Amino acid sequence: MPLLFLLSSLIASPVFAKAMPVELGREFRLKKGEVAAIEGDRATLRIVRFINSPCPKGARCVWSGQAVITELTVDGKVVPEDAKTRPYDVLVKDSDFKTFAVLVVDEPEAACRRPKAGHLGECLRGLARRRSDPALCSKIDDERTRGFCLEDLAEELKRDDLCEGVANPTQHCLYLKAKKAGDRKLCEGIVTFGARERCLKEL
Length: 203
Hints:
single chain; about 200 residues; alpha+beta; Tick-borne Encephalitis virus Glycoprotein, domain 1; 3 domains; 3-stranded antiparallel β-sheet
C-alpha cells in the first residue's frame, strides 16, 4: 500500500505532469500544478506559489502584497531569477493570485522592450548589472539612465574606463573625478548619499 501511494504521488507531481508547449513572447494561461514547455523540452516553467495579501485600502504599503512565484528549469536545472545566464524572463500579465496567472516568457532584452515591463532604460540597466555587460548600457537611449548604467558597472567591475562614456557623471565616476582632482566641491554633486559622504571623508 505505501508503494502504491508513493507511485501515485510521483505521477501527480509537476515533474511527471504533461507540459503545455508555449511560444516566446506570446501570452499563455498557467494554473498551479501545470507545466509550460519553452522551446520544446529544453526549458519548463511552473507556478510554485501565489502570494495574496493585498495592501489594505487607505494604507501605505511598500509593495502590493500580491505576487506569482514561478520556477524556471533549463536542461533539468532550476535557474535562479538573479542568475547572470538566465535565458528567459517571466512577465505576469494577469492573475487572481489564487489559482492561475497569465504569463509571457521571453528573452530578457526582448522582455525589456515589451509594454508594461517597466521603463525600457531602467530595465536594460538592471539587465546590464545582472549580466555584468556594459554593451547593454549603450542600448539605452536616455543619456542620464545610460550614464547611471555605465557608472554602476564601472564601480562593480572596477573598470574606470567605462567612465569615459558618461557625459555627466553623478555617482561613481564623479567620485573618481573628485579624487583625481583632489576637489571636495565635486563630491557635493554625487547623488548617492553614501558615495557622497565617502568622497567628502576621503578628501
